[in-house]
Amino acid sequence: MSPAVISITIVAYFIILFTISYIAGRKADNEGFFVGNRKSAWYVVAFGIFTKKQVYDKYIPLVAIASPILCYILQRIGEAWLNGYQISYELLIINALFTFLGLCLFIKRQDKETSYTTHTTKQKVK
User: Fold this and answer.
1) Distance separating alpha carbons of residues 100 and 92, to the nearest angstrom
2) Where exactly are the structural domains of the chain?
3) What are the backbone angles phi and psi of residue 123, rounded to the nearest 5°?
4) What is the model's pTM?
């Protein structure tokens, strides 16, 4: 591919990305940001349950770089390991799994005094 085609592709990608961001964010406000305008799909909310833990920020780039590298290595040597099977779209799921597990390794540990439970409101029994 020529450098001009690559440059045009990158510019077109960012134009499309910014256009979608502008259209999606025109009516956004703080309430909509935090509660998803009460229109979030169940699977988005379910995935958010796993991300309530805090992660050490300085290790996020390490995980974000290591996960695709591990997938690349898996794709290259996976054919020999899997009797000729070529991994293709499965790499998207494997990449997400590597990223999730990598971030789980760097979850901040909380003291018992500062940790919170999901049951923040307790009702008195009469």
Assistant:
1) 12
2) 1-39, 53-108
3) -95, 140
4) 0.48
* In the predicted structure, residue 69 carries a pLDDT above the cut 90: yes
Amino acid at 11: V
What are the angstrom distances between the C-alpha of 105 and each of 52, 54, 98, 109, 110? 14, 11, 11, 11, 14
Strand intervals (E) in the chain: none
65 Ramachandran zone, left/alpha/beta (phi>0; psi -120 to 50): alpha
CA atoms within 13 A on the CB side of 112: 0
Report which residue type is found at 110. Answer: Q
Do 108 and 59 contact (CB within 8 A), yes or no? no
CA–CA dist 111, 98 (Å, integer):
27
Per-residue pLDDT averaged across 81-100, rounded?
Answer: 87
